[in-house]
Amino acid sequence: MSTRSPDVQDLIAKKYKHGFVTDIDADTVPPGLNEDVVRLISAKKCEPAFLLEWRLKAYRHWLNMTEPQWAHVHHAPIDYQSISYYSAPKSRDDGPKSLDEVDPKLLETYEKLGIPLHERAILAGVAVDAVFDSVSVATTFKEKLSEAGVIFCSFSEAVKNHPDLVEAYLGSVVPYSDNFFATLNSAVFSDGSFVYVPKGVRCPMELSTYFRINAANTGQFERTLIVAEEGSHVSYLEGCTAPMRDENQLHAAVVELVALEGAQIKYSTVQNWYPGDENGVGGIYNFVTKRGDCRGDNSKISWTQVETGSAITWKYPSCILRGHNSVGEFYSVAVANNCQQADTGTKMIHIGRNTRSTVVSKGISAGRAQNAYRGLVKVLPGAEAARNYTQCDSLLMGDKCGAHTFPYVEVKEPTAQVEHEATTSKIGEDQLFYCLQRGLSEEDAVNMIVNGFCKEVFRELPMEFAVEAQNLLSVSLEGAIG
Amino acid sequence: MLKVTNLHARVDDKAILTGLDLEIGAGEVHAIMGPNGSGKSTLANVLAGRDGYEVTEGTVEYDGQDLLALAPEERARRGVFLAFQYPVEIPGVNNAYLLKAALNAIRAHRGEPELDAFEFLALVKERMELMHMDESFLNRGVNEGFSGGEKKRNEILQMAILEPRLAVLDETDSGLDIDALKVVAAGVNSLRDPERAIVMVTHYQRLLDYIEPDYVHVLSGGRIVKTGDRTLALELEDRGYDWLREAASV
Q1: Residue B3 near residue B30 (C-beta atoms within 8 A)
Q2: A421 touches chain B (CB under 8 A)
Q3: What CATH number corresponds to the domain at position B200?
Q4: pLDDT (tens digit, 9 = 90+) per residue, B14-69?
């Protein structure tokens, strides 16, 4: 397509649409990490003693850990002492009780992102827990949820109002000593979301959180905990965009899901953090630990993710299939363009009898990006008749990018069945020419082909998210074929 | 409508077309025959504007315009249609979606309003009957898991819906059994129109039993070495291509 390369260059040069910085005074702790900073964070949030102790244990453990080196990503060393570990919007003093009390600038930010909070919430029937820099400042639809007995609030509020629940479940899926980034998060996490769905309750709406990293140089350490009691159902949506900036930003979130007997949790993510410029400068480092525990029999946890952003993504949403007949699912689209690096996948740990897991991973690489799928399927002795199906497809656009597949399969149960299918295809010049010959523009043709490739994952997303995901994908891959 | 003059083209630095002349008027059906490697498919791909086919000399005039200056999608929107020898599979993209996007892109170019879902469906269903195609096909992926015959029928269905001015059928008969060939031929015949030109690229004269051409050209060594009518194709079937190749090299 050499004849059209000037257009392509223009398109590639298109700037990140959501790049802007909101001018809100932030109450930011000076850069650096030591025990005092951990104590300060805990004190600022008026936390109970058990939590401070937990944070300190994590911090002391972290001091003896080293950053993992096995991922297929490369970056300059991260100076953990140059990061500020706490930042809260100043206008929080009394905490807004309704949207009217929310800083108008913040609402403006959401407008720019195309998320008119109140309208969107009402129209879509979605409750929004907006995380803006480390502190949640707006929560909607609380009443309707509380009628159903569902608790959906910021993590800080949960610590304040439901300390027993937090103490019972925090770290029960991802222990504080789990891995370098999860342990760091355990020590310094600032805020996040908390969901508790009582026994037998079907959550009456999709729960949604929009994350946004804003204050410059502030590491973002979210902590999300979702507990679904016996026979309950909940669907949780996580989406995010970030403003443009030059410094690399570290993001090390932890998400823990607990599904008790017969409970179902569906966790959907659309991730669109700033990926850096064409040369990979700037951009978010996204090192996330997400894990779900199918603790009860007949429970089900389903992860669906569309990852288009971040300079580096290191993320393996996993399921521990402990309960008999429990089900784990992982549907993923990971896009890496320009200099982005993605090392993502899942872990399915089969412990209970007749446990089933499905993994569908679609990796798209363009530009000079590197995209790796890393997946573990582990079947422990006694997981009789456990079954796994893994399908792992890679699509390459252009000839400077890479796709890598690292499947790990450990089966210690003779009655288990594990299937793995993998394909790698180059976005066909043939496919592209076919569409052009039918009159489609090159952009439309690429979008159509890519969306077709991702269809199996998109159809797992809630409707409004699926549309957003398709739009994101087309923005992320604009001009990717040259 | 189409005037090809002294066309030279190469693929991977190998000269394939070496001074091809061809003139096609509206309403005409031309068959281009020739042995393997004579440049038949290259001609089809050059007309459609495929990457990798480099024109080194000559001109192609289409409706008074310089066709070679246009991008492939611009040619398509102006009515140039290529029925592919090997139609491509596009997994996950359904047939109806591609067809609607294509039709509306072409209509937009002509300054016509987009068809809505109902109008589009009505049109497609009517044309599908013509091609003896089942409606379920609309929701299948583009050519995904199609048999050879289904792929070729799908190409002609697209042609029937997009209504090109100049249709180039590249080996549309290859891989078809006799029943499928009849269906495809009936479809093409129903699309013969005083305003439309059809160019059939084929290796065998069998197709011409069902779609009768006005002109038959024999391509050899990258040039047209003989032009005749229907009887030329029959003669080729009897005598093969060698006598023409010898004649051309003299």
Answers
A1: no
A2: no
A3: 3.40.50.300
A4: 999 999 999 999 999 999 998 888 899 999 999 999 999 999 999 999 999 999 99
**From CA B21, how far away is CA B59, in angstroms rounded?**
9
Domain count, chain B: 1
Contact A380, A349 (CB under 8 A): yes
Q: Which of A433, A438, A442 faces B50 most closely, judged by CB atoms?
A: A433
**Contact: A437, B141; criterion CB under 8 Å:** no
Using CB atoms within 10 Å of the CB of residue A96, give its burial: 0 to 12 exposed, 13 to 18 middle, 19+ buried: middle
Residue B137, SS3 per DSSP? helix
Domain encompassing residue B84 = 2-249
The residues facing A425 across adjacent strands are A395
Distance CA A103, CA A89 (A): 9
**Which chain A residues are Cβ-neighbours of B156 within 8 angstroms?**
none
Q: How far is B106 from chain A (nearest CA, A)?
A: 6
CB contact under 8 A, B92 and A451: yes
Cβ <8 Å between B93 and A433: no
Residues A51 and A189: their CA atoms lie apart, in Å, by 11
Q: What's the mean pLDDT in A169-187?
A: 95
Other C-beta atoms closer than 10 Å to the C-beta of A475 total: 14
Contacts of B72 in chain A (CB under 8 A): 433, 436-437
CB B41 within 8 Å of CB B171: yes
Q: Which of A430, A453, A456 sits opposite B88 (nearest CB)?
A: A430
Q: Where are the beta strands (DSSP E) in A84-204?
A: 87-89, 127-132, 135-139, 151-154, 191-197
| Chain B residue nearest residue A436, CA to CA | B73
Burial A172-192 (b: 16+ CB within 10 A, else e): ebbebebbbbbbbbbbbbbbb
Query: In Å, how far from its chain's centre is CA A127?
Result: 18
Please state, in angstroms and rounded to a whole number, the distance separating the CA atoms of residues B79 and A439. Answer: 9
Helices B148-162 and B178-190 pack at an angle, to 10 degrees, of 0
Cα separation of A455 and A458, whole Å? 5
Enter the pTM of the model. Answer: 0.78
Q: How confident is the model at residue A222 (pLDDT cuts 50, 70, 90)?
A: confident
Q: Rounded to an integer, what distance in angstroms lies between the CA atom of residue A197 and that of residue A215? A: 33
**If you measure CA to CA, which chain B residue comes closest to A438?**
B102
Using DSSP's 3-state secondary structure scheme, residue B228 falls into strand
Say yes or no: B146 contacts chain A, CB-CB below 8 A. no
CA distance A7 to chain B (A): 13
DSSP at A238:
E
C-alpha dist (Å) from residue A305 to A279, A405, A458: 26, 18, 9
Measured CA to CA, the distance from residue A369 to residue A365 in angstroms comes to: 6
CB A290 within 8 A of CB A317: yes
Strand segments (E) across chain B = 2-11, 14-24, 29-33, 53-62, 65-66, 80-83, 90-94, 141-142, 166-170, 197-202, 215-220, 223-228
Is pLDDT above 50 for B111? yes
Nearest residue of B to residue A442 by CA position? B73
Domain boundaries, chain A: 8-20+39-476
Distance set, CA A360 to CA A303, A357, A420, B33, B200 (Å) = 10, 10, 10, 47, 43
> What ipTM, to 2 d.p.?
0.94
Q: Inter-chain contact A437–B71, Cβ cutoff 8 Å?
A: no
Q: How far is B33 from chain A (nearest CA, A)?
A: 23
Cβ distance B92 to A444 less than 8 Å, yes or no, reads no
